[in-house]
């Protein structure tokens, strides 16, 4: 019995030691190719089972103690893990590689397959939401009936609602296509830009949906990126006076 109590005391002692060493750490989750932040990524301490999500800047807070295993994952990225150590900086950065491999001349077909699957899923969700019926009845105090059917108002409201939703869905699909064709990973590969410089380039020179639909070949897109890179570098030289 004495051995059991002794063992219990030792276990409690080391548990208290680990708890005392545990602290709140901060970190960033970033794309390993572009160095851009990954939003809504999942960061988990597998020892405490605490999970947090990254914000729009890829930032997160998490409790950890030395040797705790931290697991990071995000949609369209491969996962990664690390053991926390007091030797690490106060703010850690975790880099995740995209799940679709960017090759020298082309983004592999899995990227297109994923884009198509996401598009179909969005369409299915939209159609299901559009199938919801609106309330066709309204209360009245001027009739002998408690409810009257206002079909004219119903159809007008439903038509406007559908048109607005259809336009919103169309805009979402167009943006998804532009992001798929002009992805940060692809642009970074052909320009060598990363981080804020890459984001600045994309914001300046992202082609329109209509242009991308008219220029569907990889060569045309690469030529476009090359031309815009020259313009970008020229503008940057003028900005710095060189």
Name the CATH superfamily classification of one domain: Carboxypeptidase-like, regulatory domain
Biggest pleated sheet: 4 strands, antiparallel
CATH architectural category of one domain? Sandwich
Ranges with pLDDT <50 over ≥5 residues? 10-18, 102-109, 133-145
Distinctive features:
Immunoglobulin-like, alpha+beta, single chain, 7 helices, flat, four-stranded antiparallel sheet, 50% helix, 242 residues, three-stranded mixed sheet
In words, what does this structure look like?
α2 (about 110-130) packs antiparallel against α3. The longest helix has about 30 residues, at about 150-180. This protein has helices at about 1-20, 110-130, 150-180, 185-190, 195-205, 210-215, 220-240; strands at about 25-30, 40-45, 50-55, 60-65, 70-75, 80-85, 90-95, 135-140, 145-150. The chain is α+β, with helices and mostly antiparallel strands and about 240 residues long. The protein is built from seven helices and nine strands, in the order αβββββββαββααααα. The model is unreliable at about 10-20, about 100-110 and about 135-145 (pLDDT under 50). The protein is flat.
């Amino acid at each position: 019995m004495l051995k059991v109590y002794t063992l219990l005391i030792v276990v409690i002692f080391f548990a208290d030691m680990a708890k005392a060493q545990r602290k709140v750490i901060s970190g960033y989750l970033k794309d390993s190719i572009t160095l851009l932040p990954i939003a809504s990524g999942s960061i988990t301490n597998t020892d405490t089972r605490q999970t947090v999500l990254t914000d729009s800047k890829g930032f997160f807070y998490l409790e950890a103690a030395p040797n705790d295993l931290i697991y990071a994952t995000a949609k369209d990225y491969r996962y990664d893990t690390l053991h926390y150590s007091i030797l690490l900086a106060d703010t850690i950065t975790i880099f995740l590689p995209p799940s679709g491999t960017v090759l020298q001349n082309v983004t592999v077909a899995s990227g297109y397959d994923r884009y198509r699957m996401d598009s179909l899923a969005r369409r299915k969700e939209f159609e299901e939401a559009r199938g919801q019926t609106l309330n066709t009845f309204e209360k009245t105090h001027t009739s002998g009936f408690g409810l009257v059917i206002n079909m004219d108002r119903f159809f007008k409201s439903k038509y406007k609602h559908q048109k607005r939703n259809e336009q919103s869905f169309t805009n979402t699909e167009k943006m998804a296509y532009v992001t798929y064709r002009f992805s940060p990973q692809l642009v970074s590969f052909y320009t060598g830009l990363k981080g804020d410089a890459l984001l600045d380039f994309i914001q300046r020179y992202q082609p329109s949906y209509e242009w991308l639909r008219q220029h569907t070949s990889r060569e045309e897109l690469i030529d476009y990126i090359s031309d815009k890179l020259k313009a970008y570098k020229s503008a940057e030289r003028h900005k710095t006076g060189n």
